Structure formats: structure tokens, C-alpha cells
Amino acid sequence: MNNQRWLSQNFFLFFFTWGVYLQYWSGWLSGAKGLTVQEVSFIMGFGLVARAFSTMFIYPFASKYFSDKKLTLLLVISSLIAALLYVPFNTFPALFAITLIFSLFYPSLLPAIESSASTLVQQTKIHYGKSRSYGSIGFVISVLILSVMIGYVGEKVILWAMIGYLMIMLILQIMPTPEVLLAKPTVEDRSRAFSMRSLWKVKGFPVVMIIVILLQGSLASYYNYSYIYLQQYLQVNTFYIGMILNVAVLFEILFFLIADRLFANKKISTLFFIAAIGSTLRWIIIFVFPNVGAFIFSQTLHSVSFAMAHYAFIQYITKSLPKQQIANAQGLYSALATSLSAAVLTLFGGYLYDITPGLAFLGMTIFTIPAIIIILLSKKAYQI
């Protein structure tokens, strides 16, 4: 079993599905199921809450009783069943209920695969960045393929693409898995010493979590308002918007390809500091220079504002936490840094966007600048 190849394949296939979910799920609920924008927003909003609850509580709890392989397999099967439930239903109450169920299982696949990655890096010394780059590549390919398919078949193909990709993931999970991921947690692993509460007592962890909440949360305006900013404010042709947005992912891929070689031995605080500076600069550029060229240039900074911050967190938990705490850390990261913080800051960004579009991006510096200050004040005290 080639551990590096196994992880690369899992990242690639998961992000193939993630491209469908992030980019097209709302459009599918509206275009194929006939829901209004308000109904879609309501469903996706509560779906985000369900996702946060699942990744913060359900996934970490389940990880104490199932091996990494079995838990990932169960999540894939549950996600596939939930996706199939969408097929016969079209009413708002039914779609709302199914989305809550789907959100309890499918998004937890991300921390599950990331936890497997951290375990493999920690115990088998594989290269995280190399395998994670395949995830970004899968995301780009998925979005491009589905955009073509939608053009020929319509929005109804979105659900069937998700179902098909989840079936492929299921086949992959049935195939041989690295032995270290087959180990079932012991009674000792479920002890209070490795509880969620004890994780907060690990020196440096609360500070690291605050930093990633601020940095990953600051991407909320970019994820939610970039498309309409380019289309309505900068008057970019819809055909080119996808290409412009994919510039960020391309630089994300480049970062992960070189990350292990250039940054594996750097201090975690240094990586976070670069990420925070890059993120702050990114939002200032969009506000100060409201034109297409400046926006495209700002996309190159996704390699630090997202990718480096994410890589720094993975490096921290891999080097500083025991295997028994990795799932807890990944669950908190997914729930707080990439779900709840994004939900709250999306509302804040929407308020600023109504004042003037560029302000929604500049407003994100309210979170990146405090991150810079926290990093500078804590790097010696907590040795991160």
C-alpha cells in the first residue's frame, strides 16, 4: 500500500464532490428544485449550523469508537443515502429536512480525511502538501466538468454528479487502506485525558484556534460576494468570472506542491504571520483598486491567505498533538474556523456590501489585523 498515493486519491475524490457542493448546491436547489432565493438561503443557513454541530460534536465522538477507515466509510455511505433521498422530493419542508440530514454526514468527510492525513504524516512521514494539492486539482476539474455538463443537460445533473462521485468514493473506501488507519480506538483513547475539554488545556492550542478562526473566517466575503462583485460591480462577462475565480485555486495548488519542501520546518507562528499579512493585503488591494486587474492579482494571495493558514494549522496539530486529539482538533477547526465564523462574517460582509461593495472585503481586515497582533504577542509565550 502506497500511503502517499492513497491519501492523494482520497483528497482528489473528496474535493471532486466538494466542488459540486460549494459551487453548485444552492443553484441546484433553486434551478432544479424550484425553490426561491429566500428558501435556499434558509435551507443552506441551517445546513451550515447542522454542519458545525456535526463536526464539533458528532464526528469527534464517533472517532473515539471507530477506526479512521471505518468512520470514513460510514460517512460516505450515509452521505450517499442522504443524497439519494433528494431524488423523489421537491417540497420545501422535505428538502429542508433532507439537507439537515445530508449536512450532518457529508461535510464531516472533510475533517475525517484531514485527520487521516495528519495521522499518516505523524506516523509514516508522508508529504501532506503533495497529497493536498491533488484535492485542489480535483476541485478545479470538478467545477469545469460540471459547468460543461450543466450547459448541455441543465441543473438537474448536479445531484446526479454528486451521487456518482460519492459512489466512486465508496468504491475507494472498500479498497485496501493504510494499516495505521485500521487501528480501532482503545478505552484509553476515550479517556478524559483525550477529551474535547482537555484539548483546550494544551499549551498554545486556544491561541492557534483563535488565529485560524480569524484568518479563515475573513474569507467569508470572498466566498460569498466575489461572483456578484465581479458580475455586477466590475461588469465582468459571466464567461470569464469562473476563470478569474479559479486563479485562486491554481495558486493554492502551487502552494501545496511546494509547501513541504519550503515550509515544513518553519515555525508555526511564522507561517501564520505570513498568512495574516497576505490576507490583510489582499482585502486592501480589492478595496483600494476596484478593477479587474487588481482583483486578479489579489487572487494570487489565496496561496497565503487560505492555503498557508490551513497548512500552518495542519503542521501545528501534527507536531503538537497526540493522535487521539487530532480528530477533536479537526472537528473544532471545521466547525469554528470554516463554518460558524464564516456564517457570522457573511452577515457582517453583507451589511458592508450594501454600503459599498469594496467595503465588504476591506471589512475583513477587522479580523486579520487582530490576528497579526495576537501572533506577534503570543509566539514567544506559547512557542508556536
UniProtKB/TrEMBL annotation:
Pfam families: MFS_1_like (PF12832). GO terms for cellular component: plasma membrane. Keywords: Cell inner membrane, Cell membrane, Membrane, Transmembrane, Transmembrane helix, Transport. GO terms for molecular function: lactose binding; lactose:proton symporter activity. Coiled coil: none annotated. SUPFAM superfamilies: MFS general substrate transporter. The chain crosses the membrane at residues 12-28, 40-59, 71-89, 95-113, 134-152, 158-183, 204-225, 237-259, 271-289, 295-314, 335-353, 359-378. It comes from Lysinibacillus halotolerans. Its main location: membrane. This is MFS transporter. Residues 6-355 form the Major facilitator superfamily associated domain. It is found in: Cell inner membrane. InterPro entries: HcaT-like, MFS_assoc_dom, MFS_trans_sf. It is a multi-pass membrane protein. It comes from the Bacteria.
